[in-house]
């Protein structure tokens, strides 16, 4: 990893996770596959524009390129070089474009590997409405939720074997002999591990997030009626954690009705739970009742794209993978391969992930500058194809032109 720039310095993090950010931090970036290079170029223009606008020459980001995905394979022969993992740890804060994962076979997800290896256990995906965005909802402005998705276990742990493999046959035999469980012939087998400690640290982060921001509720989203000992346990562990560690700051929804006459006591957030299928319809019909959602990995993946669609689509859906030490910011969407290299897709999601990065390092003036300018750009109906096709009277611009339009609107 090269380092350059006279004042460039590393961000450091203490044992309680507090960052110390120099005026000219080195921040890692992975360009990504598919449309990644297009949206990264656009994002960089916007973030640099905002830092300059907010701080003049007093602050500056020194970007450190880290290789992953197709570019890494081409340049190093590896999909995810060790140097990249060490680079993210060294930088403490990094941002990435999307990386391709083949369906069915081939390499396992590099995105998931990054989260697991670096223990970035909370996938945080805020979903909010920017005025003027097209939406299939009557009241998209009522959607304002933050998804906290467990990022390291569940069916994403990658413990699975193909139908007919020696391992799948041995597991089927073991299940039959030990537990009398019959699997249909030629069954593929996957394992869904969900642990108490990993559930607790995710829910703890979600509750703290709600408390820090004065948000009214945290909802545990699970499929515990069917998967009783995994998703059902997520619910139980989540409630237990909230009442044990945040006893005087939280109240469960059932207590609200049973002992508080339907009104939560002042200063307490309500912890509630919803079964995942019901949560999708609640998000459409009663979104204003939900603020922070804490959920296992698979539910969180599905929910993030669905919620994004409610406020304008995957083009404006940011995210962060956060651990106790490092944070890696990335859009909710993938590589959108059919648009690769066309300078066409919406860089909004990665730009807003950059806003989350700026907030994470405490550069709130620059973060606000981007958000204001982005809002103005959308309000002026200067948008990429995805929004233009849903808007009356929009001016469709390319990905790079959108970035310049945002910078022009900075104050
Ligand atoms: N974190 C990551 O790096 C992720 C990686 N992936 C990977 O990405 C690859 C492609 O996945 P796929 O299922 O096609 O999902 P994608 O999210 O890449 O794309 C699906 C559709 O969403 C819309 N879309 C996505 N990004 C944008 C954008 N920036 N601006 C506007 N519209 C956008 C496009 O819709 P339309 O066709 O209507 O224009 C696109 O065809 C897979 O290999 C997958 O594994 C997927 C998710 C996350
Ligand atoms: O890793 C991938 O390719 C897909 C991951 C994904 O969809 C997500 O994290 O939202
Ligand atoms: Mg996804």
Automatic annotation (TrEMBL):
<keyword id="KW-0479">Metal-binding</keyword>
<comment type="subunit">
    <text>Homodimer.</text>
</comment>
<feature type="binding site">
    <location>
        <position position="346"/>
    </location>
    <ligand>
        <name>NADP(+)</name>
    </ligand>
</feature>
<feature type="binding site">
    <location>
        <position position="149"/>
    </location>
    <ligand>
        <name>D-threo-isocitrate</name>
    </ligand>
</feature>
<feature type="site" description="Critical for catalysis">
    <location>
        <position position="156"/>
    </location>
</feature>
<feature type="binding site">
    <location>
        <position position="111"/>
    </location>
    <ligand>
        <name>D-threo-isocitrate</name>
    </ligand>
</feature>
<dbReference type="InterPro" id="IPR024084">
    <property type="entry name" value="IsoPropMal-DH-like_dom"/>
</dbReference>
<dbReference type="InterPro" id="IPR004439">
    <property type="entry name" value="Isocitrate_DH_NADP_dimer_prok"/>
</dbReference>
<dbReference type="GO" id="GO:0051287">
    <property type="term" value="F:NAD binding"/>
</dbReference>
<keyword id="KW-0460">Magnesium</keyword>
<dbReference type="Pfam" id="PF00180">
    <property type="entry name" value="Iso_dh"/>
</dbReference>
<keyword id="KW-0816">Tricarboxylic acid cycle</keyword>
<keyword id="KW-0560">Oxidoreductase</keyword>
<feature type="binding site">
    <location>
        <position position="115"/>
    </location>
    <ligand>
        <name>D-threo-isocitrate</name>
    </ligand>
</feature>
<feature type="binding site">
    <location>
        <position position="100"/>
    </location>
    <ligand>
        <name>NADP(+)</name>
    </ligand>
</feature>
<feature type="modified residue" description="Phosphoserine">
    <location>
        <position position="109"/>
    </location>
</feature>
<feature type="binding site">
    <location>
        <begin position="333"/>
        <end position="339"/>
    </location>
    <ligand>
        <name>NADP(+)</name>
    </ligand>
</feature>
<feature type="domain" description="Isopropylmalate dehydrogenase-like">
    <location>
        <begin position="26"/>
        <end position="406"/>
    </location>
</feature>
<comment type="similarity">
    <text>Belongs to the isocitrate and isopropylmalate dehydrogenases family.</text>
</comment>
<keyword id="KW-0521">NADP</keyword>
<feature type="modified residue" description="N6-acetyllysine">
    <location>
        <position position="138"/>
    </location>
</feature>
<feature type="binding site">
    <location>
        <position position="125"/>
    </location>
    <ligand>
        <name>D-threo-isocitrate</name>
    </ligand>
</feature>
<dbReference type="GO" id="GO:0004450">
    <property type="term" value="F:isocitrate dehydrogenase (NADP+) activity"/>
</dbReference>
<feature type="binding site">
    <location>
        <position position="301"/>
    </location>
    <ligand>
        <name>Mg(2+)</name>
    </ligand>
</feature>
<protein>
    <recommendedName>
        <fullName>Isocitrate dehydrogenase [NADP]</fullName>
        <ecNumber>1.1.1.42</ecNumber>
    </recommendedName>
</protein>
<dbReference type="GO" id="GO:0000287">
    <property type="term" value="F:magnesium ion binding"/>
</dbReference>
<dbReference type="GO" id="GO:0006097">
    <property type="term" value="P:glyoxylate cycle"/>
</dbReference>
<feature type="binding site">
    <location>
        <position position="385"/>
    </location>
    <ligand>
        <name>NADP(+)</name>
    </ligand>
</feature>
<feature type="modified residue" description="N6-succinyllysine">
    <location>
        <position position="96"/>
    </location>
</feature>
<feature type="binding site">
    <location>
        <position position="109"/>
    </location>
    <ligand>
        <name>D-threo-isocitrate</name>
    </ligand>
</feature>
<keyword id="KW-0329">Glyoxylate bypass</keyword>
<keyword id="KW-0464">Manganese</keyword>
<feature type="site" description="Critical for catalysis">
    <location>
        <position position="223"/>
    </location>
</feature>
<dbReference type="GO" id="GO:0006099">
    <property type="term" value="P:tricarboxylic acid cycle"/>
</dbReference>
<feature type="binding site">
    <location>
        <position position="389"/>
    </location>
    <ligand>
        <name>NADP(+)</name>
    </ligand>
</feature>
<dbReference type="InterPro" id="IPR019818">
    <property type="entry name" value="IsoCit/isopropylmalate_DH_CS"/>
</dbReference>
